[in-house]
Amino acid sequence: MAVARRGRTSSVLSSVPLQILFYVNGIYYIFYFLATLAMIVYKSQVFSYPDDFLGPDLALLFIMAILEVLRLYLGSKGNLTEEEAPLGLSLVITVGSVILSVYFLVWQTYVLKADVIINAVLLFTYGLESVLKVIAIAAFVS
């Protein structure tokens, strides 16, 4: 039998839409990583891809993957535990992920239409996720 405590109210402040977006973004990023990796291999075989740029492009993709895992972990942990620090750190890491995504969208050696589409979707989810993170942090602080 549950005992009701007087004078103590508890409310859940975690954001369900943000948590769902973390999950969806995690699955989408797996697709993004594999598709981008396949397109880099394709471009290196079909086009005259400079060898000096192949290594850095692959390195940036793997750095982005590490940042993404860290970003999603900290964001999910911060949201579920209702702590501002991990969620705020995830928001800061999102800036790095956005810069890397813009690199693959604009500054990569060869940019295919598929690159534009998958990066646009990723940037859209980053934007939506950032707005929800700011709202969640504001709810946790108040």
Secondary-structure topology with pairs:
Blueprint lengths: L15 H31 L4 H31 L2 H24 L5 H29 L1
Give a brief outline of the structure:
The protein is mostly helical. Helices cover 81% and strands 0% of the residues.
Task: Walk me through what this model shows.
The chain is mainly α and about 140 residues long. The chain has four helices and no strands. It has helices spanning about 15-45, 50-80, 85-105, 115-140. Helix 1 runs antiparallel to helix 2, helix 1 packs antiparallel against helix 4 (about 115-140) and helix 2 (about 50-80) packs antiparallel against helix 3 (about 85-105). The longest helix is centred in the first third of the chain and has 31 residues, at about 15-45. The radius of gyration is 19 Å and the shape is elongated.
Look at the helices and sheets and give the structural class: mainly alpha
Total number of strands = 0
**Strand coverage percent:** under 5%
Q: Give the termini separation.
A: 32 Å
Shape: elongated
Major sheet: size, sense and barrel closure? Answer: none
Low-confidence residue ranges: none
Helices, by number, come to 4
What is the CA-based Rg, rounded?
19 Å
What would the average pLDDT be, to the nearest integer? 92
